[in-house]
Each structure stands twice: as structure tokens, then as C-alpha cells.
Amino acid sequence: MGTLYLCATPIGNLEDITLRVLRVLKEVDLIAAEDTRNSIKLLNHYDIHTPITSYHEHNQRKKGPVLVEKLLQGQDIALVTDAGTPGISDPGEDLVKLCYEQGIAVTALPGAAACILGLTLSGLPARSFAFEGFLPMDTKRRKERLESLTKETRTIVLYEAPHRLARTLGELALVLGSSRKVSLCRELTKCHETVYRTTLENLLEQIKNQEVKGECVLVIEGKSAQELKEERQAQWEEMQIEEHMSYYEAQGLSRKEAMKQVARDRGVGKREIYRLLLEKEDE
Question: What homologous superfamily is domain 115-223 in, according to CATH?
């Protein structure tokens, strides 16, 4: 039985490839590439003559089982994407799943990943982040995904094509707020690498009269914990005090404990809640 090698390749600069990846690309029986025309340039640059075949989102259902069969027969296969690490926003994850279902060994060879480069260059918190890849094109799913980001407190990382950048920035400004901090990273590792650190509103205005080229990485500031707290508090304050109490009492809390929780939700003392309840009783 063979092994599937997930080989990270350069996202722009051909020097960003490891010696291990080069060795494996030469030694495997077959290279499965997202775009053979793109990958052949890399292979020619490093004088690699391993047979190559296509594996992409349009043929993955038919080609995946074919590749799995070759692996079961003992062939070693290297999977490469157009640029970066296979399995991130590409059909590589489906092939990995098929391999695991058949008990085929899979290993990953680390290297370039645009999402990590963009995150580290953004100047935004990198300790915890949410990687979203490309937003869905389907209108309903896209709206749902954008809405889900409104509560995200982690730094958000998105991919976007240059011709859709203005539309996406407009949607993000609408749902996240135009003043939200953002970094636009483009042409990463190339001679024209550029990072714009600004707000969604300013970035949208800045690109209106520009022709943006190259795949883009958007790194967006997450919502602050204080903002979330204030939003939740505002939601509670819209409720009648008796309704708020009933909400917790229905969950089995005693009246005393319910008052404590209501006071915490509204950012006031328990005595204030007690006073408001007494006033309601006297009405």
C-alpha cells in the first residue's frame, strides 16, 4: 500500500519550498495537481520529471477513487495545490478523507500557507483566529456565513479573488461595521507584496479607483469582548423585568438566584432588581 504525501508548494516565490518536498516530488510514482499547467512550471524549474495528473474541484468525485486505487496498489502519490498547502480551501481534504476510509497512510510536508502569512503580517492578534477561506457564492449560505461572523471575537482570516474584493468588503462593512480594522495582504512573497492596514470603510474607498491584482488575504479584527457584553446587556434591558425573572425561574432557579442572574445580565446590583420588582408589584 502506498502513501499520500500532502506537499506544500510556493505561493509566489519559487524559493519557498523545502528540500524534503523536492525530494518527495522526485521519488513518488505520481503527482496529483490542482492545475497541471501551473505545477509543471514548478517541476520544470527544479528539473523534476515525475508523471503528473490533475485533481481539482471539477473532477474530484471521479478522480479521487482512481487515485485511491493507485495508492491501494502500492503507488506513492504527492498531492499539490496551485499554491500553498493542500487541504486548505481546496479538494485535498476530500482525498485525505477517502484515504483514511481505506486505511491508506497520509503524511503532510509543511511549507507556505497564505492564511498564516497574512495573519502574521496583519498586525492583528494572532493567538486565536478563525479561518474562513473563501465565502460561499450561494446567496443564502453566504448571508448565513457573514451573519455568523458578527459574533466572532477571534481574528478572522478570509481568502478573496481580486474581482470580488469590493463586493466582499462592502458586505463585511455592512455586517461587521465600517470602522472594523482590517489588513489586506496581496501578492504575498512576490516582488509586489503589499499589506494595507486600515479599516473596512477606508479600504473599500481606497480600492474603488484601483485595479487589484493577485489573490487576496483579508485579516479582520474580531469583535471585542466588551462589545459583546454591551450588546447582550442591551438585549436584556429591552425585556420587562418580570419577563427576565421568569426566564431564569423557568430554568429552575430560585427567586433569589434569578435576581442575582438578572442583576448580572443588566450590570446592576441585586438591590436594584429587588426595588424594580417591588415597584412593579405596587403598580
Answer: Tetrapyrrole methylase, C-terminal domain (3.30.950.10)
